[in-house]
Design goal:
Helix content: 40-55%
Order of helices and strands: HHHHEEHHEEHEEEHHHEEHE
Number of helices: 11
Radius of gyration: 25 Å
Strand content: 15-25%
Number of strands: 10
Shape: elongated
Length: 278
Amino acid sequence: MSYTAQDVSSLRKMTGAGMMDCKNALSESDGDIENAKEWLRKKGLAGAAKRAGRAADQGTIDVTLDGNVAASVEVNCETDFVAKGELFTGFVSELATLVAKHGTEGIEGQSFRDSTVAEEITALGAKVGENVALGRTARFETTGVVDAYKHLQSGRGFIGVLVELTGVADSEAAREVAHDIALHIASAAPRYVTREEVPQVAIDKERAVFEEITRNEGKPEAAIPKIIEGRLGGFYKDVVLLEQPFVKDNKTTIKDLVATLGADATVAQFSRIKIGEE
């Protein structure tokens, strides 16, 4: 049985599915509207377009650590109720394992379960009745040491951290330091590893703010440059990992902690993903 443009339009209105999905459904169903609706429902496509406009600002993060590879995945949804459900958290856990094995490039097109990541996310949205979307992903593979940490809140992964140390041999001491740093990153929320990574535009902005504050305080003109530099030092402590006081011992910086592993030890990179934050 053939179908018309009106059939496609009607099916879209009834199901909220996309035009091409409706055409495929009608083709697979020989133009039968009811069978096409069932085909879309089984594929998890019915209602997807209607849900797409709703805010997906909740979600779940999961991490995985396997030898010298660590990965983290965020999947977003509309409510924390769905985010902490076993169906949702189990899906994200499987996806984290996939990323650890195959990387983040082209992730939505990667084979996953019986189809692709993108198709399975659409199907998950249909099952839970919410707008579900793939969020941020990260994967580190190293010749040094990596760690992965997941902070739980309300029964779901709320913050996911990966950290990579290089210039160190794999050892119990190195793994312990890497884990301590991952815990620190989850709490202290640094944005850069070193101050050299801080964009000049961000530094100039802070310098201008500090100069205005200092002048408004009526400080002597000759003292202003030194005061500004001191306040910039505080800014770096807020955003630069290696300059932050270690959360377990504020007399020790992260740089000092890393140095306990040897002169060549350094933090190569880190990733911090928190639900609800960019």
